[in-house]
Amino acid sequence: MDLGIHGRVALVAAASHGLGKAVALKLALEGARVAICARSEAVEDAAREIAGAAGGEVMAARADVTDAGQVARFVGAVRERFGAIDICVANAGGPPSKKFAETTVEDWRAGVDLNLMSTIHLARETLPGMRERGWGRFLAITSVAVKQPIEGLILSNSVRAAVVGLVKTLANEYGPYGVLVNNICPGYTATARLKSLRARLAAAEGVSEEEIERRWTAQIPRGRLGRVEEFADAAVFLVSERAGYINGVSLAVDGGLSKGLL
Ligand code: NAD
Fold first, then answer.
1. Segments of the chain with pLDDT less than 50
2. Which domains does the chain show, CATH number per domain?
């Protein structure tokens, strides 16, 4: 299937590693002109790696997505280099795992900045142009936590639910202009973040990392962790021409982990 995104300009936030990087690579392989950001110089290595693998043009910039000014400068630089932005994938790191009793007011504020405000900053900078041109795709990367809360992750469980409300509302407001806004919800997917979470839980509980992974996979009907490429395939479809009638959904890519009906 031709996804119809050859030559489109795609911005992927927080993409020096993990899910964001995998999505950026897949977009580049589909012929999109891709711009990625992250906070450290690792973003330049990621861009070189993606360009080497896909052969296209990949732009890298250092930007912290929690900072409205840095997001605005990043988006402005992408426009200057590639022209109008067609696709925006809003991603950020994940908040720390905590229970309610140990979560401070500062933790809550940081969690809101990291996962809600970052999505808002990216939406504010990219949606007006998409609306003007009558075509656009905005995809928020959240978590399966929006389908089913994950134990010990109160910040993710709470703040990401607000992102779903945001996405659903933006889908209503921008759908009439050909700009489709969706949400994609990774389950347990093998990335650096998941490995560090596994190590922390193992240390905290005095069990092996294999035991933590066994507990996770026991809940997943597919019987294993997800692969970043599998997540990226679903994400790239959602931002493609072929997903022209998909708007306002929260798609779980979780191997069947979430047990609700929707
Ligand atoms: P990761 O830690 O491997 O990668 C996160 C990326 O975001 C890195 O490139 C990092 O440099 C960048 N980043 C972090 N904070 C940033 C900031 N403030 N500004 C700019 N860049 C920033 O994480 P991942 O596993 O790829 O996860 C991506 C998102 O998906 C996270 O929000 C995570 O919580 C969520 N998620 C992941 C899983 C999973 O199993 N991997 C499951 C559910 C949800």
1. none
2. 9-187+228-249 (3.40.50.720), 188-225 (no CATH)
